[in-house]
Amino acid sequence: MADDREIEDKFWKALKDSPFIMLGIEGAREGATQPMTVNFEDQDRHSGVLWIFTAKDHDFTRAMGQSSQAIASYSAKGHSLFASLRGTLTLDQDPATIERLWSPIVAEWYEGKDDPKLALVRFDVADAKIWLSDVEGFLKPAFNKLFGRKPEAGMKEKVAEVTLN
Q1: Which pLDDT does position 8 carry in this prediction?
Q2: Is 105 helix (H, G, I), strand (E, B) or coil?
Q3: In sequence order, what are the residues at sequence separation of 6 or more whose Cβ sits closer than 8 angstroms to the Cβ of residue 93?
Q4: Model confidence over 122-143: pLDDT tens digits?
Q5: Please, which residues have CB within 8 angstroms of residue 14's CB and are 6 or more apart in sequence?
Q6: Residue 33, helix vs strand vs coil
Q7: In angstroms, rounded to a whole number, what is the distance separating the alpha carbons of residues 90 and 5?
Q8: Which of 1, 20, 24, 84 sits in a 20 to 30 Å window from 74, CA-based?
Q9: Which letter does DSSP use for residue 39 in this model?
Q10: What pLDDT sits at residue 140?
Q11: Which parts of the chain sit beneath pLDDT 50?
């Protein structure tokens, strides 16, 4: 049986492997979410911080003026894990952070680290709900029902609610 920290560790490993979330801003853009690529290192993980490179003139960045409250969803490769994240967004143009997170993939989008359109968004994740999923996870409810138990019986060990900062 996995505990919350084990499930959280699986989340961070999955996110490192497939760093794409659906990110939205509460109260802005009619609740629309969009795919964004997150960046983080171990020091960020331990403080629950995700970083997103985007453009200052992007409608998402402009919408941050309406609200700083973020919602995000995540699905790991192979759908082995799902997560719902909540937290706060801020613009952070710290040159040291940009340097630390810069990569050849990010460089493809900008004219360099000093590009005037470059915006670095900091997503401070306050809390998350993480679900593990596997073949057993899909079959267990059917077996439970077959044997007269509630379908969700024994599923609690597959879900973690964590506070990240």
Answers
A1: 93
A2: helix
A3: 118, 119, 120
A4: 999 999 999 998 655 555 555 5
A5: 74, 76, 77, 80, 81
A6: strand
A7: 27
A8: 1
A9: B
A10: 56
A11: 1, 153
Residue matched to tokens 């997103």 = 52
Q: What residue type is assigned to position 15 of the chain?
A: L
Q: Are strands 159-163 and 69-75 parallel, antiparallel or unpaired?
A: unpaired
pLDDT digits (tens, 9 = 90+) for 13-24: 999 999 999 999
Question: Pairing state of beta strands 81-91 and 118-132?
Answer: antiparallel
Beta strands in 8-137 (DSSP E): 20-25, 33-37, 49-55, 69-75, 81-91, 118-132
Torsion-angle region of 4 (φ positive above 0: left; ψ -120 to 50: alpha; else: beta): alpha
Residue found under tokens 């590009």: 115
Total count of residues recorded for the chain: 165
